[in-house]
Amino acid sequence: MKGSIITRGIRLGLVSLLTVMTATASACSPTGSPDIKSPAASNTPAASNTPAVSNTPVVKDTLQGKIAISGAFALYPMMQKWAEEFQKLHPNVQIDISAGGAGKGATDALGQLVDIGMVSRDITQSEIDKGGFYVTSVKGAVVPVVNANNPFIKELMTRGITHDEFVTIWVNGTITDWKTLFPGSTVTGNTAIKIYNRSDACGAGDTWAKYLGKKQEDLLGIGINSDPGITEAVAKDPLGTGYNNIGYGYDQTTGKVVSGINIIPIDINANGKIDPDEAFYDTRDKIVAAIGSGTYPPVLANDLNLLTYKQFKGVTYEFVKWIMTDGQKYVLEAGYVPLTKVRLDAQLVKLGLK
Question: Exposure check for the chain: N or C terminus, fewer CB within 10 A?
Fold first, then answer.
């Protein structure tokens, strides 16, 4: 009897406690119902900690191998950029690049010593007859250069030099003194012109000589090997002059003329001054635009070719195919001149891509 009373008391106490808790919960909700909703009452699915499973298969990069390249200094900076970007996509491809002049690139490619020869001049019929196969990848140009501290530098920058005057300096040798170009100048002392010519068989020498109506071996001057060699020699000699591919006349990072030299403006219309439409030498972007538009003498713009023996094969073919398609987006960034669509399409046909 006593136990029954205790049990009923506990039950009544629990009921009272539950009644109080329910009333309290109802009072805390503005609507008279609990704030927390069950998942079933929501249209938003509950978050899951289980990672989503993708049905897209992972494609493994299987391209691998080695590519050996040599040749023109003119194409060397561009080729470095192409190789860098291609290897980001295909890290198992090794690309070795060496610069030694267009002549070396052609000889190495035809001798099968390298997979690609960089040639910054026209491919000759003789080279084609020896099994040469090539595509033109991009365009460059050759510019005349002078020491930045030349005693007549102000006059040179405002007056320029005409085509015929370049001929008399580089071919005929009838103008041997800077003062001859500026007879009214008050500069005194030794002002003899010091010419620096390329000693290696190169596209730049071939292009500059073609502008003057001659061959590279017909040009006067002290023989200097390589584009960097010409830049260094001219920069050290206040009376020095030479020629460079634009990739060595302009800084790759800033796009401005390399320290120590200036680009000699060409007086294209021979009126004794550099007109506004002839003044495009202070930055690489400006001269690239002038080359592309044909304002800069077209004969000084050279094709930069990729030469091989018979056909590009294997991983080399894949690299060249990429250069002529996706790789073209890096051309302007690197300071080169893109091919026209017609010319680019012609190269793609040669590669069997069109």
Answer: N
